[in-house]
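Request: Give me one sample?
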Amino acid sequence: MEAELIYTECLLMRGVITFLQDEGLVSFARGGLRVRACYKSYKECFDLLSKDVKTGHEFTMGVKYGFGTFNLLMSMLPSRLLHLLEFIGYSGDKFLGQKLLQECSFGERSLRSFVAQLILLTYHTVIPYILGVGDGDLEEASRVLDMALTKYPKSALFLFFKGRLSVLHGEFEQADVVLQQSIDSQKQWPQLHHVCYWEQVWTLCFRQRWTEASEFADILFKDNKWSKASYLYIKLAALLMDTPRPSDGYDDIKKRMAELPGYKIRIAGRSVPFEKFAIERYNRFTKRGYLFLPAVEMLYMWNGFSILSRNQQLLEEMYETVRKAVVNDVSDDPDDHCIGQLLVAVCLRSLGKFDDAVKILSDMLDYATNSGVEEAYLEPYGHVEIGMCFMEQGKYDEARSHFDTAKTNYKKYALQSRLHFRMHAAMQVMSGK
């Protein structure tokens, strides 16, 4: 049984790696199909535990870790994909997954305890803030982390998650300190340093320290191989916040922007979703010669306002930056107008001013429909933002109506899969799942 369990874990890890290649629905479906055999094996093993069949401790913890991880992965899938996988025999129970991983994390120590802790920390502190609605259980994450750091106080991974928790509490200065501790804790794995640099890019963007953020993005561009096109665009978007129109330093930005398409890659035959967005921005920059609030737009596309809202002062400062840019915009470009209105509304929603946000978004949608904007993402994202406002106010029927509109009426726009995951997470919140 132990050998079968180890083989099954290898299949699960293969599926997880497929999921992590990108957040597209195709990758999730491919990953799900690849672990079909492992699901059947885990289910049989779990049934043995349910029948109180005598097994070894490591076998028991391995089943809880694997079956718990599988259930969490399945529960995150959008409904249209989940229904397909359920049809061929899969099912995902978020609460069962968390329960099993907690038992593996907090029970008697095993070889898989620390891996279960890492999965729980990732589930509560990373996934909800990229693919969800920012509703991670930070108290549970703190409980897991405290236990992990008691045993591994100098672990680079757990120190990273400590810094990540500071980020999610809006304590960005403290996060920088802890992330540096993670970097200093080891030199053998520079890839772990890169994870910390990635986090610091965003902590600096939240504080509108654009030049410093671009420097960390440049480190990633030079040293990390994941997506140089994404890193380069993040760097240039940050620099353009301080150099929005032709001026000192603009020629260098223009030159580097021209290099961006050459760094586009394919992973396992698939494009990186954010690279597609970056290429669209490159095309717009080439056509117009500038980009409107590119780093703030980028923050929004990465769901950064769900984190920025934890720091009221910085959120208000970001709102003021966006508001001034909109007021001072002298172009007659309908896309710039709609991007500005969308970002203003996002700030207002994050500040709890839902009625004001809904009015601005409704006007933006009317304007976008009548003016023929080129940016296809603006209308579906606008509907989702209205839905989020209604959800926050407990108006679930109105929220679902806008989510359904975004889901059924719009196709082939930037980061579409990411928005579908966010809508799925919102639907789960409203249904109490």
